[in-house]
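step 4 of 6: structure.
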Amino acid sequence: MSTKMDTIWSKLDRKSTAIAEFTMRQYRTRISTWVVLGAATVAIFLMLLFYIEAMNTEIEAIDNDGDGLINEDDIDWDNLQDGVNYVGEDDDGDCENLDTTSQRDGNNNKNECDVLIIVDTLNGTTYIYPDANVDEDPDEDKYGKEAGHRAFILGIGKFGIVYLLGIFLPLFLATGLIREEMSDGTIHYMLAKPIARGEVLLYRMLGYIGLTWPYILGLCGLMCLITGFTGPGDGIFRWSDIGVWMTIAWAAMLVSLVYGTIFCAFGIIWKNGVILAILFAAWELGMAFVAILSGGDSPIRYFSVIGWGMIIVDSGVAICWPDNWQLIQSGLWGGGQGTENFLGEPEYVPLPGAEPLDVFSGSPNLGTSSWLSLIISTLVLVFQGIMSWFVGQSIFKGKEVD
Amino acid sequence: MMPDMTQHGKAEVEEWKPVSNTPVILFDRVSKTYGRINALGGVSLGISGGVTGILGMNGAGKSTLFKLMMGKVKPSSGAIRLFGTDPWKNSAPYSRVGFVPEHEKLYDWMTAFDFITTFARLHGMTREEASKEATRVLSFVSLDDVMHKKIGQFSKGMRQRVKIAHALVNDPELIILDEPLQGCDPLARTTIMNVIKQLGAMGRTVLVSSHILHEIERITEQIVILHRGRVLALGNSHAIREMLDQHPHKIVIDCENPRELSKDFVDLDEVTGISFSNPNKLLIETKHLGEIHKKLPEIIVQSNQLVTGIDNPDDDLQSILMYLTGGSL
């Protein structure tokens, strides 16, 4: 066994494994490492408790159409295609009982008692034109659980894991990678060896991702298992969530790598580099809000790291939950119940969970397919990482080490 | 930009080879300033082979000299060559250099063995080669019995030896030791001095810095005296010792009756002056410190006086610097 391991290791670059391994062992001996990882885990799992509580609480059903019966005319549009769809079923027959054809075909699509839906996958929008009294009394509990489940995954995934973990892990674990060695004077041992400074930076980063990437993967894997079994659905496990969790983990891994390299470079520039890192984190926080709240409409997010991380998650959602936009739109429509505002436009009463899901969902909006968006955003983040390393190593090269 | 017609690209890196027919270390009018502080001013040096002591007071520029050699800092002007290569631009010559920094901080959580193997691997060694090398260098500095203990548990002298061992992996041709004896107990001092002498005997170029002359004297034949960033003197330790002996020295003897004792010294040729700084102290001035010290025991025994202390108030280095700078420190 050990000889086999040795052959694998010796095939890899000896210097890189030496420094990466050293870096990981160094992390292991520091209490701060365990505090950071422990605190992050506890925070995420606390959020998970709220989720589990919500999943086990029944949402009260409302008699949306006021006929004394509840949930008797549920929304029924699975498997929508891109483009024009005729769906909807008048479960309780109150549309069929209307007097005239014109009353039964309010949307003028020559089909009585249906819902006309136009789906625009590329832009993530769905238009709903219903006939009267069709799908008017949806099942709040069924809808709320599904939307709440997805909103939780996207909320905790995008904000908790991709942004907060993505920024805090490097803030505590990467900013000092070179700086601490410089202030301790121990950098002299490493720099007295025949190894370029750029290499030292690269292999230190390798050690950093050797710690953070398995952690992110493990955390997301665990979250996927727990929410997959607890979440709503017909099967025991929500298989379609796996892909979304994978893109969340992937986005967090790439984002933490880019931030890590930038913060490490900040540490090299200035002994209080953590201040620069916090300023940068504040900019990224703003960008995270822009990216999340605009739903993918704001081009300014391209000038950030987090914006591209969000595009990865949004692409994952578009691939794994293709019905996400319909779910949001139908929830916001809520069966057509509501009032009119002063302009005469309808204001529907959204179903529970529809608004949070709407907030946390976004469209990749790169004008191309979801898979291509995933690849493009990945490449952009990798490029940002390489550029940060390149700038970092040239700063390091010109830095006098006392 | 012109296309690369040869199509070799930059990827093809030739193995670094030292430039022959050049000193191991070459300083050509090197200056280094930190802001307005002049740490090193116009130093020219060429060193090859043997043990060389760099002597100077704190702040004389010894560490700056070493940092320049190791490419840690960039010279403000002048050129430095390490095996014929600029150390600031190229880390390749470090494969033939072992550097012991003055910093005391080490990785306390590692064992001495792990520390050495990890850094040996930065020379491109495999795990096996590195472990073999670590065992070799640790026994060279007589730490083989404690090599699997954590560095955090080591005494100062042991830590200093770990640092030296770390510098000796890959069998370097040049070994640079920045204040290796500082803070060591007498036993560690002897061990480290023996290691340095041995390295010199093995034909390595060794550079040792210190601010204590008699330490350096015990290990080296060549001395470079650095003062305020300049090379003040460069030469053989015997010549420097002679120079020091020519220079007036003071000996203070604590005794019951200095006037009585002084009579025995007046007749000696080596003594140039006698004075009484306080009722119980006799101050003797001499240019031949060694000679006086040889005769001192006999005189004291014959005088039948109780002598409580003999002291040379001049620090060796200080007096030599006074002499060389003409009295202005």
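step 5 of 6: annotate
 - Chain A touches chain B through 30 residues (CB under 8 Å).
 - Chain A is about 60% helix and 5% strand.
step 6 of 6: archive
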